[in-house]
Design a protein that fits this description.
The protein has about 70 residues and is α+β, with helices and mostly antiparallel strands. About 55% of the residues lie in helices and about 15% in strands. The longest helix has 15 residues.
Amino acid sequence: MLVLRRVAEAITAVVAECPTGAPGGHLYAALMQHITLDQFQSLMSVLVEAGRITKRGDRYYPTEEAR
């Protein structure tokens, strides 16, 4: 669980640095040696539902709090 928490924090930080949006495929490519696609998609859904990031199309954006 600690690993997924750290991955979530890292994703949130990376997305916060990308005001024009971070492509989901690029984010997953950086993590694919460590988590499965299903785990990535579930984690991203949790982050969106929790309001940590937003999603439009295939890109993830920082929320106002993350900027």
